[in-house]
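tool_call: predict_structure(chain=1)
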Amino acid sequence: MKKEQSSSTKLSQKRDVTAEKVEGLRKKLSNTGFSETDFNALDNEKVELEKSVSSLQEKVDTLLAQLEGRLAFNYSDPVRGFDRSKVKGLVARLIDVKLPKHSTALEVVAGGKLYQVVVDEAITGKALLNNGKLQRRVTIIPLDKIVPRRVSSATVDRASSMAKDLNTTAQPAIELVGFDEEVRSAIEHVFGSTLVVDGMQAANSICDGTKTRTVTLDGDVYEPSGLISGGSKDNLGSTLSKISQLTSASRELKEKRQRLVVVEKKLDSLSSQSKQFEKLGAELEIATSELAAVDKHISQTSYGMLKDKFDAMTKEIADATAEVEQMLITKDEKWALYNDLKKMEAQLTQDRENRLKDIESRVKEAKDLVSSKEKAAREVSTLKSIHVCIPPLHLTHTCLFHS
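tool_result:
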């Protein structure tokens, strides 16, 4: 038995050392401040972002290839150190169609102006035309010289009222596109003088009534002069529709790329902590396995089995002792409650007796009062029935009865 106890003692000492090692590794893991869940979430987000960026880039490239012939505008710097921000770009690239259903109408409204180039000043436009080595003819819209064209508010109100009466809608074309305020005068020049109306009959009536150019959603045009144009749409509206898709895809691509950069930086900053966390985690796993093996070995020895029984019995005794202590506390609480209730019962009984005595006293007083009142009433009644005689003034005897 002593030999088994000595062997078990060594195992217990080994267990204590291993348990201390496990606890130390757990503290180190906790102190790293590293969250494996957050790290994995960032890593998964990075994968998803990379997929999105790849898909969006492919979409942007496809749309650019489809629009390249119509939207290409290449030029050389007309002077050394030329500020390219002076060239704002093609009108088609400066607007954002708010609703796809308006693409056809807006493309008809703009016509060839859709491919005109907006610049900050006339001098910039002249420099491009003279020294920009342009590969095709272009029309320049200088922001400092262009005269905006607008539909008056009174005309807009009249058109809206007429459209409402005809159960349709009429809106200024410029309200259907988004753009930067910097290029407002150029966009008003292109879209400011036309109304977009839903329906041919309404467009015709509103054009006549307001003397304003109107365009239907299908691209039919009604001029104040009486001219009407329309017919086959072919691919009419596809350019603005694709430009809107390109703008949306480009914007989303930019946002995804920015977020990807942020996520990659976070992952880089956490990579060293991740490696340390993984190393400590592996060490903890090994130490935990060693501790489990030692516990298993101890439990399988005769001394260990006896010790387990002893520990179990000790625990049972401790639990029973705690239960007894709790029962004694509960007993004291119940007795205290019982005594309190007994005191309350005695007090309530005394209060009841006092109230009954008070009530009996009041009843007696009431009876006495009633008796005295009855006696007084009888005396008054007796006095009223007395026969009163008045001496005669003449010979005739006159008696009066006071009733």
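agent: The chain is about 65% helix and 5% strand. Proceeding to next step.
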